[in-house]
Structures are given as C-alpha cells and as structure tokens.
Write a structure and sequence with these properties.
By secondary structure, the protein is α+β, with helices and mostly antiparallel strands. The protein has helices at about 60-65, 125-140, 145-150, 230-235, 255-280, 335-360, and strands at about 25-30, 35-40, 45, 55-60, 70, 75-80, 85-90, 105-110, 115, 120, 160-185, 190-215, 235, 245-250, 285-315, 315-325, 330. It contains six helices and 17 strands.
Length: about 375
C-alpha cells in the first residue's frame, strides 16, 4: 500500500478484505437492498457479525473496560496533521486524502486501541440520493453567491461512519421554582393590565432515557444539526463488513467525557418536565434549581452513517454533514453581500411605498380600503442550516 506521498511504507497491521465466495470479487454492503453484495457478480451473502446482539454496558465499569481496551481487529488508522482526525480503513481503500477536511497531510500509523464498536446503523440513503439532497440544499440558499451555487463540490461527498456513545439512564429530579397566577387590574389611566402573583413551588419529576446520542468525535461542528439517528430500532450487531468501502473515524472523546454532554441534554429535558408540571397548576412557571439523580446508567459504542464534504470558496473552507439514514443536512455556506444589500434595498422600497400609501389615505385620496398594519423586525438572525 503506497503512502500519501507515493512511497511504499507499510502499516504493520492486518487489514480485512471481504471476498465473494463465488467469484473472488469484493463484497460491499448494498444500501438500496440492505444486504451484502459482490460488486462484480452481484452474489448476495451474509457476513458473520462480531457480536450476536447489540449489548449495553454498565457505566460504572467503563473506566476499567477502557483501560483494558484492545486493538481494533482488521482496522488500520491514518492521522491527518491538518485537522487531527484519525480515520480507520480496511483493505486497500486508503487514498491519502482526509475525508474530513480534504487535506493530503495524511500519515499512516499503527493500529489503534479502544473499546470496539458494539453496533452500527447502516446507510439508508445512497451517494446519488445524498448528492441530490445536497444540490437542492445548496440551491435553496437564497443569499449564497451565484458562483458558489455553480461550482460547489458536486460528487464530493464522502460516506463514512462516525463514532457515537449512547446512554440509557433512569432519572429523578427534584425542582424548586415559582408558579405564577395571572390577574387583571386597572391602572390609574383606567386601562386593564395583567399582573402576576408568584408563589414558591417544588416537586419531583421522573423520566427514563433510552439511547441519548453523543458524538465521540471532536470534528462535530455540524453533527448536532443532523441528529437524531434511529439507534433504538435500526442498530445492527457490528461487523467489519459494514465498513468495506467506507471510512470510519476512531473515537476521540471517551465515554465518561461524553456523558457530561449527555447530562446537559438530560437537564434540559427535565427542566421542561418541571415547567410542564408547574403549568398544570399555575399560569406561568419558573424553575430556579434542579437536583438530578441518575441511576442504572448503561452505555454502548456505535458507528453511525454520515456523508461529509468540504469546499473551498474565496479562500475559505466550508464543511457539511448529511445524515446517511434520514438525509438531514447541516452546514455553513458563504453569503453574497450584493444579494443581501439588494434585499435590504427592496425592503426599504416596500416600506416607503406602504408609507406613501398610508399617507395618501390619511389625506383622503384613497377611500374604501382596509389598511393592514405590517411590523418589520430588523433583528434577523440568519440560520446556518
């Protein structure tokens, strides 16, 4: 296997090839049919999974298990010195180009150790369909430069599996806050207004969480925008065969660190439950504090399907992610200053025309029209997604 600069330095690890028993061709997972298929003779076959079922592990034993982790069987690792990604590959697929940032600053390294994947959610959307969704997404960006829409990275999507941790836990939370009762009073001017009387409240809310998904890669700029994956129903027991023809990233964030992010997700949900419980008795709700207890925490390591792409435009790099199961897209794109200015001018013209219309009507030049009041909000927050 040649290195990124054309040399012949080899990785001292065993890699896996998935050979068709009928013709000797390469077996790959067919996204459309959801079975393993020979790329040459189209023979379908089953590959043996590493595990019989997707197992979850007691989180209290995590550190001990991480300390005793073993090398990923049949997987070699390449390190990108530009973005820091560590990408696993199998067989002869290594190309010397980082799928995360497009850099050629790739060095082949020894095999990595870690907690092996327990399961995988396979791709449900193939590259052609993902590319079509990507093209539609780019073309729908109203304020993107025309040159960007014409020259973005069509066909530049890379299919890869990214590492995630999922968590199950039972949660009980005691909350303290205030419940507000609204009442109407009349001011000194005789006009009615609503005032709120606040009362101290407290209570306890419960919830069971199943498969909270937290990215285990530090290249997760857009991953939050493409969640969730259906890990509850669509996770298959892991087999190296699913990675044949695909890249996969080695996890950088360990499960104990990722659980801190899961706690924030849990806190937000429990805060909502507390608010809803207060609103069952009051008109308004405030939650001032939450005392959260977790129990029966379980975790597992999964690989989830994502298409990634990066594109340079006017000296800047823009990256994207597409959920390989649902097709949801998240990413950043450039903005066209002329288009934004033109839109602002058009808005000003509309406002001026309406002002003229209202002024003429006030002088009696226009009769028999119902005037509609339009409020303009200048504090526009542009969504990146």
């Amino acid at each position: 296997m040649d290195g990124p600069n054309g040399d012949s330095n080899k990785i001292g690890v065993k890699t896996s090839n998935f050979i068709c028993p009928n013709c000797g061709g390469t077996l790959k997972f067919n996204i459309k049919s959801q079975v393993f298929e020979c790329s040459a003779c189209k023979t379908r076959t089953d590959l043996e999974a590493v595990v019989d079922s997707v197992k979850e592990y007691d989180f209290s034993e995590y550190k001990k298990r991480e300390a005793g982790s073993v090398p990923f069987e049949g997987m070699a690792v390449a390190h990108c010195s530009t973005c820091g990604a560590e990408i696993t590959f199998s067989g002869t697929q290594f190309s010397g180009v980082c799928p995360m940032c497009g850099s050629t600053q790739i060095a082949e390294e020894k095999q990595r150790s870690g907690i092996p994947p327990e399961g995988v959610v396979t791709f449900k959307i193939d590259k052609d369909d993902a590319g079509q969704k990507f093209r539609s997404w780019v073309r729908s960006r109203w304020f993107a430069p025309n040159n960007f829409k014409k020259s973005y990275a069509e066909g530049g999507l890379t299919a890869m599996y990214l590492p995630f941790w999922t968590y199950d836990t039972k949660v009980v939370a005691r909350y303290y806050g205030q419940g507000g009762v609204n009442r109407t009073v009349r001011g000194d001017d005789g006009k009615p207004r609503v005032v709120t009387d606040w009362y101290s409240v407290s209570g306890v809310v419960y919830n069971d969480f199943d498969d909270i998904q937290v990215s285990a890669t530090d290249k997760s700029e857009h991953l939050q925008g493409i969640l969730p994956f259906n890990t509850v129903n669509n996770t298959k027991p892991f087999s190296m065969g699913y990675l044949s023809g695909y890249y996969a990233e080695v996890y950088k964030i360990k499960a104990d660190a990722a659980f801190e992010q899961a706690k924030l997700i849990i806190r937000g949900h429990m805060d909502g439950l507390a608010h809803n419980e207060i609103l069952m008795r009051y008109d308004q709700a405030r939650v001032s504090s939450l005392d959260i207890k977790h129990s029966d925490i379980m975790y597992k390591h999964l690989l989830l399907p994502v298409y990634v792409s990066s594109f340079r435009f006017n000296g800047k790099t823009f990256s994207y992610a597409i959920n390989g199961e649902t097709g949801r897209i998240s990413g950043k794109r450039p903005y066209s200053a002329p288009k934004i200015i033109a839109a602002a001018i058009a808005l000003i013209i509309v406002v001026l025309m309406l002002s003229t219309f209202l002024e003429e009507d006030s002088y009696g030049y226009i009769d028999n029209y119902d005037i509609v009041s339009i409020k303009y909000d200048n504090n526009i927050e542009w969504s990146e997604v």
